[in-house]
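hi!! sorry for the late reply, been swamped w classes. u asked for the two structures so here they r. pasted raw, havent cleaned anything up. first the sequence of the first protein and right below it the tokens
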Amino acid sequence: MTANYLKTLLSPTARALQTFDGSRELYANMEANATNGDDRLTSREATFIMQRNSFYMASVTDDGWPYVQHRGGETGFLQVISQSRIGFADLRGNRQFMSAGNVRVNDRVSLFLMDYPNRRRLKIAGRGAYVTAQDAPDFVSQIALPAHRDKAIGAFLINIVAFDWNCPQYITPRWTADELKAQKEISE
């Protein structure tokens, strides 16, 4: 767990529970290594992000309710823009604009990226922004994958505050139909 992730997301109540459990000293030592800056993606995180074809994103409503949404697409639709910024095109869907509306009021977001076959997950905390294709047509067109440029109605940009590679202990391996097909072809 990165020190910045702990510093950003560990609440006083969680710290009190750690004290009660006896694990506080371990996490206090980790927190002591936090920097004053935001976490920067390395090639390990960038590669993992670009290999995903889905993730979950949490945002917060105007009145404080957490909202989690699944985002999916072709592998690589979530793009690494820089060591501190990621983004993806918002494609035409059910037109509820819940996540888009949420980040315009409270920019805090959390992403959960899973690699079920390899039992790996990456958690990202950041500050999100939403731009419409009308407001930033060139950027939205640039961030959308070529096959989806005509369906892109906006884009999400996320400035990374902290990230954490999480323990694989309870990840049940799962495979997509394409992954199973590829495994079958390899074994034949």
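now the second protein. again sequence first, tokens right under
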Amino acid sequence: MIVWLNGTHGAGKTTTSALVQQLIPDSRVFDAEKVGETLMDITPGLPETDNFQHWPPWRPLVVETARRVLDYAGGTLVMPMTVLVENYWREISAGLAQHAIPVRHFVLHADQDTLRGRIEGDTVMGPSAFRLAYLEPYAEAARAWLHKEAEVIDTTHLTPPQAAQQVAESLRS
């Protein structure tokens, strides 16, 4: 099974995923961003883009990597990864379905002011124009399709342990 934690930068995906992993027996965290980083390391580089998700190999490689890890290790993969392009989500979820891998899709949501404050106040990564640039695309995806496709957990007033607990409770029900 895959527990996919979607949402934009600042929603708490990375922190929450580590906490969710601790609450789910036989689970591992798989950050699909590492697949993108591998593609970014190809030399000479792939065609220029502002986001590795736009490279067509990224999506099937995420599916194939998740499938292979689950075939090898079993259990549950907790995957913190922002996917805001509906067609990309459909491609990934269809690929996982072809391998009969169940997916529980969660969106960690927070209001725009909270997200902006978290990004600007991030003491690990520092303020990031790249991360801020995704606030409006996230809001648009949330309105258009994303919140209809997932279980939404509003993290605006939650700590990461509280958000992780909500995910775990939803999985148990």
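hope this helps!! also noticed smth abt the second:
Residues 58-73 form the longest helix (16 residues).
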